[in-house]
Every structure is written in structure tokens, then in C-alpha cells.
Amino acid sequence: MDAFADRVVFQTREWLTFLERTQRGQAIVAAVEVDGEAAGYFTGVVVRRGGLPILGSPFPGWTTDWMGFNLVDGVSRAVVASALPHFAFGVARCLHVEFRDRRLRDEDVRGLGFSRREVRTFELDLARSDDELLRGMTSACRRAIKKAERVGVVVEEARDEGFADAYYSQLVEVFARQSLAPTYGVDRVRELIRCLHPTGRLLLLRARRPDGACIATAIFPAMNGTAYFWGGASRRSDQILRPNEALFWYAMRYWRDRGLTTLDLGGGGDYKRKYGVREIHVPALAVSRVPGLMILRNTAAQVLTYPWLRRRGLRGAGASAVNEAETDDAGAG
Q: What is the mean pLDDT of residues 298-325?
């Protein structure tokens, strides 16, 4: 299945294992047939929320981005999407299904009966030289990258077990600036590294001051031409050294030099525009078998929308990996 050109890292066996372990779910890979002919696959995970079986591909709070379908050329995503509820409510025995397929367009799903919301993401074209990448950035961003180099910030690839703890401690600090807390624990970061890092599809970066202190971290999974910004964080006291821009600059060149053509920075903070990205909108679709279930789902989602609820410890399902933190240096995580 990984041979499909439209397959993304979030659909791989290793990522599904990560979701099974962190979400206590069961991965499902279903064969898609059109007129009796093999047409591709659907990838998702069944979980229980409030005792109700839900099929997510993905589901909010999983720190996972696009999933959905992998289809052979010429197969209509609209036709396949229209059949998904029958599978979800029948074979999978779920009461609710949600999915985000990066290749779905609004016209593919209009009139199919799904509840729809728009997911924003920012994409950067990596198929350019260093000079071209820099020219696409704002002048302030270019100056930040040069400053980090000038003051001696060093970016290194991390492979040690302590990376998860360093990243998470910085993430806690980022959220604390808004009197918030991360919507997941450090164990999720450890599990991500445990499942994905051995595949070579996960880049772990840390930025150090000249004295060796770690002042920023970032995580970038990748596959099939596209890298993703999963999460990043930094120490506020050292942001003047511009380690965040240095991390992004390193990641851009690292994945480009390995043949990737796109860096998906996710939605969230508009600060990502400074890297020369383009804004993309993808439909996120959901449908429930039981009337009224969508109302309960949307009510639960509001917990993350209103910070005062999270300050009281009522942290809910969360958002996708690339939308969860709206702060300039918290990034996706």
C-alpha cells in the first residue's frame, strides 16, 4: 500500500501503531472496489469516546493530519467518499465517522450529506535552491536566520531518548505563557519517536546555544514527497537568538536534499506566512448515524476553542497535529 503515490506518512503501518497505542484504538485498512475492480484503500482507526464507537481518519486530538483514501488513477474520490458511511455504520459498526483526505476538493463532496468544515494549512515549495527559498521569505525571516547563524546557534539532528523530554518541557513552557497546558502528555511524543524514528521518516531537531544548552526543538515526519511540521517549541528567554527560524531552515534543506518537494506547515499561526508559503483549504467531513450526535461532538470540540475552559483543566479532544497550538513558537504540537 505504501507504493501508492498519494499515500501519506499518517497512513503507514508505523503511524497506525502509534495511534493504536496512544488512542487505544483499532486500525482499519479497508479495500476499495469500484464496479468489482480493485480501486485502492481507506485507512482509519476505530476508537471509543464516551462509550460510542467512532471511525476517525483522522479524528481531532490524534496529532495526526491527512488520512482518507489511496486510489488508483481515474477513480472518483466523490464516488468512494459517498460509500464510506455505509462501511462505517455497517462493517465497522460505528456511530460516527470523520475523515480528511488531502486530495479531496469541495466539488467532490458537495451534496453528499456530510457535515463539512474547512481545514487550513500552509504549504512551502521545497523544489528550489537555497537562494530561491530565501527570496521567498520575508526580509525579517531572512534576517532571523542570519542572526541565528551569526550568534552561534547550532542545529543538530537528535537520536537520543532524552529528546522527547526536552521537547515536552519546552512545550509546557510555551503553553504556560497563555495559562494553558498541552493537550497530550510526553508519553505521546515518546511513542511517536519509538514507532516512526527507526523508519527514517521522522526528523528530530534541536537548536543549541554556543554554550551547548538546548533552546528549541522541532519534529518533522515525511513521506512520498511531503514533509510535515508536527510540533515545535522553544525557551522564551532565548528566542532573541532566533532558534525557531534556524530549525525550519535546517528542515527545509534536509528534506529537499532527500528528494521531497513540499513542506506542509499545517494551519494555526499566521507567523508561518513569513516562510513564503501558500494557503490551502481542505474539507474535513463528518457524518453520524444517530441524529444529534454531531451536536455532542461539536460541543466537546468547543473545549479547546475557549481558553478559560482549558485553564480549568477541561482539556478535550484537541485538534490535528498541525492546528493544535496557535502560538508562534508552539507550532503543531
A: 39
